[in-house]
Each structure stands twice: as structure tokens, then as C-alpha cells.
Amino acid sequence: MRMKFLALAAVALLAACETAPKDANTGAASNSSSIRPGSQEDLAVNVGDRVFFGLDRYDLSPEARATLDRQAKWMQTYGSVTVTIEGHADERGTREYNLALGERRANSVKNYLAAKGVPANRVKVVSYGKEKPAVVGSTEAAWSQNRRGVTVVD
Amino acid sequence: MTTKTRLLLKLAGLTGALLLSFGVAAPQEARAELRIDITRGVVEPLPIAITSFAGSGGRDAQTGADIAKVISADLERSGLFRPLDPRGFLQTPEQLRTGDPRYQDWKALGAQALVAGNTTTGPDGRMKVDFRLWDIASAQYMQGLSYTAPPQEWRRIAHIVADAIYKRLTGEDGYFDTRIVYVAESGPSNARKKQLAIMDQDGENHQFLTDGQSLVLTPRFSPTTQEITYMSYFNKKPRVYLFNIDTGRQEVLGDFPGMTFAPRFSPDGNRVIMSMAQNGNTDIYTLDLRTRRQTQLTDSPGIDTAPSYSPDGQKIVFESDRGGSQQLYIMGADGSGVKRLSFGEGRYGTPVWSPRGDLIAFTRQRGSSFAVGVVRPDGSGERILSEGYHVEGPTWAPNGRVLMFFKDLPSGDGRGRNAKLYSIDITGANERRVITPLDASDPAWSPLIP
């Protein structure tokens, strides 16, 4: 356990050295010293790792674009990070259609990040359709959380 | 099982071995033959007496009794037959083996048809099963057949006999000598473990084909029933795979740059048709299994998926949102001549062409209301068979009379969902749960086992 923690800390140091733009330590690790800059946790806590979609839609809302603006910046900060965008759908829809819809949503995110300067070779996409709900339940509250694109650090 | 099964199970029935000629009265055409009219909506099940297929003793007696039970259960489950309680039978299997039925006795019991059979083991260790079928009301012998197989195949023999009885009395092919491949589900709703599983249509001989390490979806049988095409997230790369049941070998199908999904075999088994999603666009492709050539069939900017061939291989029904919402379309096998099929209120998906060609099954969604239904290929005669939140994913029995689908219903504690398999007649009658060891979704019914 201890060894592992040390190893992680070393990676974090390396990552910080690699990037080192002038504002490398704003945003990133300032909120909590236990969060490693450039990690999934960093992205989720300090940037926002997911965007949400309307029913049967794959266009990006203003909130979603704001989140992705931050993600694009974060990706530029941590220039060696590669990510996979997971596209998801709520349970209302057939399995096949939701797989295709999740792929559309993931690509909406990827295309927006690309437009903001994140190279395509740092972003993969995968669709899980309705297979992996974030929130279990058959309510509008659950469904709205499940129609999502999640940026996952590889 | 499988290949071995196929090779060893030489059916005398296939060579026609018509067994016994006694009781066959010469000209019978004038008489109204015992026949279940299954074109009507709700049929009163036909009372049928099925006696033990007991042999002269020992293991044959037990197997013979078990065979009769499997036949009874098959026929009962079809909803078209009502097997009578054997405790009321007044003639023993031995008496029926050596003589005619006492028609008055069987009639008094309420039986309209009578089945008797026998099980013997030959000097080569092979099991011989024969059966005879009588029409009680008109006191005549209808049919006799004989089958030979290794003794461990007794269940298949029972299903084959049930298919023969079904066919003789309904005029339609049976569907009992078939298997189901499906996705077995377990674990919490937000991290379901999904495994391929296979079983006989009555739930027996159940086995898991994959270990659940990779998410798997939508398995479909090849026409020979020896291979399954399905989708797997192996290595987090969602692709269409081919699974060989005999060898357990799995291989990815094609070399596609994006996610491939929704696979099905062509009726001749030479191609797999599927969808490929790339850059937010989903189109339909075929992969020739011999040449490995990939052919793109659709190029609309929308989602084109869930393709299914007509039984003659000439047409393809699929779903597309090219018109603004998810609807059914039919096109030629080369992708030409696309015509919209569904015009009803709501969204339509997962079309599956009946093996008889006369109907297309689908999943319909109106808001949060789901239904499984059928429609003719010309778009007429749309009929909903089962509704609920939510039902999905129909598959056809090989005779085109029965559908299986799954219901993904809220679990008792309200914190998740439990998927279960159901079967239903195309009239909408006889909806029944299909029992599986775990939760179950995405069923696919095999053709009759060759």
C-alpha cells in the first residue's frame, strides 16, 4: 500500500514537471492536496468530467460547452494525457439505437474538444448505450444523469 | 454436445420409418380429420392423452416415462394442447403396444387425441423410440414414427416426437427441437455482468458460453445453429464477434474502424449483416464470411441499424432515424430501393423478419410506453402483442408462430431492474415466462436443429 502511494506521488511529480506552463498549479491540485494533478479525480473534481444531453439529443448545451471548454484547457495543461469519451443513453430506447446514440454523443464531445484545440489522437470514443447507467432508477432525475458523455483518462 | 450430437443423431424419422400399418383404415378423405385450427385468435387447447413411453423395464422404463413428460410439457407450453392427467388412464402402455386403443374409454376421459410410445435399447446400445398417434373421436390411427439415437439424446428425441405430433395436428412445423441463446445478467444494475448463455427451448441443458469478463450483447444463431454472432466489449473495443459453439473459438468479424454492433446472419449463412458507427454516423454493412469482403449498404447521415434479412435473402428490414424519428424501412439486399414501412404513432425499432416471411416483429416506443408487435412486410396489419415498461427485442420460433422477447421490469426493491424472457403466440395469446437461472435479455431462437 505504502509503496503504491509513493509510486503514484512520483508519477504526479513527473506529470507536473512535464507540463509546467505558468499557471500549472492554479485550478488543478489546489483544492485538495490528495488529488493528483492530471488524474481522473482531478478532472472530475476540479474541471467536470461529464456533460449531459437532452432526451434523444446529442447537441451540446451551454453548460456542456462550458464544461468542455474547461476540459480542453485541462487537456492542454496536461499535454501527455489521453482520454476516452464514453457516450451513454438512458434506458428508454432499444439496445441498438442507444448504442448508436451513445456514439453520436461521444463524438459531439470529441468534435467540440477538437475545435478547442485538443488533437484527435488524444481522444478516443466508446459508446455504452444504456448498458452502464450512472444512476439506477426509472425517474426523470435518473434518466437526465444517464444521458451523458464522460471523459475518462486512459 | 453439438457437432457430436449432430453427427451421432441419425434419425430414423428422417428416413421416414413409418412404423405400423395397423389401424389405418383405407379411404379416410370423407371424414373430418382431427385438426387444430391455429389461425383463430384464442384456441381451446386440445385434450390429449400421452401415455408413458415405457419400455419393457429397467432404464428404458424410466427414460420412457421421462420422454412422455417432456413431450407433454412441450405441447402444453404451446398453449394449443391440454395433456390429460395420466392417473386417469385406463389402458396401460403395454396394452397399447400390443393392441388398439379402447376408443370409448379414452373418449370418456375427454381425450381427443392419444399418444403411445415405446423405448428400447438395441444390442448396439442405441436407443429406439417409436410412437403412435390416434384420433379418438373418429377412432382412427393417424401416424407412427420411429427414431434411433444414442441414449443420452433422449431429450432431443422427445422434442422431435413433440414436433411430429404438433405438425400432424396443426398442419404447421413444430419448434420444440430448438435452442435459445441469450444474455444472462447478474450483479448490480449500474455494473451488470453479462454472459452469453445457451439452453434448449424448454430451459434444459443450460450452459454459459462466456465468463462475463467482457460485456456481451445481442447474440444471434447461424442457420446451422453451430455458430453465434454477437457483440462484445472485449478489450473495451465494441465489435461484432463470431462464436463457434463446437470449439468455443471466438473471432472478431471484419476490420472496421468504428464500433460494430447489431449483427445477424444472412439466411444462407454466408454473410453477417451489422451496423458500424463512426464519427457519429451509423450505417449498415455486410461481411462475406468466405471472402471477408466488407460492403456498405446504407449511407444516410442518420442512425441505420438493427438489420434483418427476409427468409429468401432478397430484402432487408432495418431501423433508421433518417426521417427524423426511429422508424422501420425495407431495402433490397444490395441496399437499393429503400421504402419506409412503419407509419404508426411512436418510434419503431429492432425489426425481425419472420422465418415464414409473412410478418415482421418489432419493438415500438411511445414516450415511456414500450410494446412488442408484428406487421406485414407491406406495412399493413400492425398488431401489438405485449406491452409494458419495458418490453424489447423479439425473436421468432422457426415456425413463425411464436415469439420470444424480454421484459426489463423494475425489481421488487425499486432500486434496479430485472430482465426476464417471455414467449407469446403471434395471436397475442399464451404469454409465458421462460425460466432461466439468472436474469435474461436479448434472446435469439435457433432454427430447428439440423
How does this model look, in words?
The complex is a heterodimer of chains A (154) and B (450). Chain A is an alpha+beta fold. Chain A has a single domain (2-153), classed as OmpA-like domain (60s Ribosomal Protein L30, Chain: A), CATH 3.30.1330. Chain A is 45% helix and 14% strand. Chain A has helices at 2-19, 40-47, 62-77, 95-115, 140-146; strands at residues 50-52, 83-88, 123-129, 148-153. The longest helix of chain A has 21 residues, at 95-115. Chain A is globular. The model of chain A is unreliable at 1-30 (pLDDT under 50). Chain B is mainly beta and 450 residues long. Chain B folds into 2 domains: 3-29 and 43-170, TolB, N-terminal domain (Rossmann fold, 3-Layer(aba) Sandwich); 179-445, 6 Propeller (Neuraminidase), CATH 2.120.10. Chain B contains 5 helices and 29 strands. Chain B has helices at 3-8, 58-77, 93-98, 103-108, 154-170; strands spanning 46-50, 81-83, 113-121, 127-135, 140-149, 179-186, 193-200, 207-208, 216-221, 227-232, 239-244, 250-252, 259-265, 271-278, 281-288, 294-296, 304-309, 315-320, 327-332, 339-340, 347-353, 360-366, 369-375, 383-388, 391-396, 402-410, 417-425, 432-434, 439-445. In chain B, the strands form 7 sheets. In chain B, strands 2-1-3-4-5 form a 5-stranded mixed sheet. In chain B, helix 2 links the parallel strand 1 (46-50) and strand 2. In chain B, helix 2 (58-77) crosses helix 5 (154-170). Chain B is globular and about 75 Å long. Chain B starts with a helix and ends in a 5-residue tail after the last strand. Chains A and B meet through helix 4 and strand 3 of A and strand 13 and strand 14 of B.
